Amino acid sequence: MRFAILQFPASNCDQDCLHAARLSGATARFVWHKETSLGDVDAVIVPGGFSYGDYLRCGAIARFSPVMQAVKRFADNGGMVLGICNGFQILCEAGLLPGALIRNRDLTFHCEQVFLKTVNAATPFTADLPNNRPSMMPIAHGEGCYFADAETLIELQARGQILWQYCDALGSVNESANPNGSVLNIAGIANAQFNVAGLMPHPDRAAETVLGSEDGRRVFEGMIAGLKRNRQAA
Amino acid sequence: MVSRSTGDASVRMKAKLIITPTKAVLDPQGKTVQNALEHMGYTGVTGVHVGKYIEIDLAPGTDRVAAAKALDEAARRFLSNPVIEEYRLEIVD
What we know:
CATH topology of chain B: Mth169, Chain: A
Distance between the termini of chain B: 19 Å
Number of domains of chain B: 1
Helix content of chain B: 25-40%
Oligomer: heterodimer
Structural class of chain A: alpha/beta
Radius of gyration of chain B: 17 Å
Strand order of the largest sheet of chain A: 2-1-3-4-11-10-9-6-7
Order of helices and strands of chain B: EHEHE
């Protein structure tokens, strides 16, 4: 499977994503933000970083870059897109995912390992994650507090679009396990069609044992398995 | 973006855009500033909302109505995020 890893000015997890995608069995290449076409790809990763210096709002400028117009067309046609950290912020700003990411509740940048409960395992992004324990991945953000209005939250819950919630080591979703103040402890969501997902934690930084966790690689592997299933069904 | 008219070229117009978090959004910055004000002895403060101020210089002779319309659209689409923010736009000479 062919992964496109987007690169914006001040992306800083693009190399990690490329490495994680290849480690998971995909072929992967970078696509520069000025490109107007993604080329022949099966999935797109919008990586973490501080695109365009986080000016105005995180992801607000990247959203209007030429490559994001191509990503929007790709997603509208059912293409698989994953946004990680700043990539999640960009997808929200672009309207490909509902809600927004705002300043962490305690106003501090959090760089730490977190535990995640898989809320909906019936998506390619989550299907390969462990089902008998929480996943572990790092976060590194100052603006990762997920917000959506009450009406949107009801829809997200009803449709199973909440994919991950912050939890403790035992899998309990509670206030003390919430690192940034996200509503409902939301760490990641999908769109209503489940072909676009975003999360603040970094699966790309938890893709091999030496990094302390291999759980993140399973997100990439799940995507690849999902793409293979789609291809067989076609 | 902003259409020109044949108005007085000596008039320098500016657009002033004030963006604040909507009341439904958690505003930890505002809350922290409010607490600090209270600690400093400034009483009677019932709320602080920290937002952004954007000043946009407009070319001389810009048509005010057209500028207001275009910038209102820009504020909605780009300069603010309606999910979390509200804005007030003002065109001044």
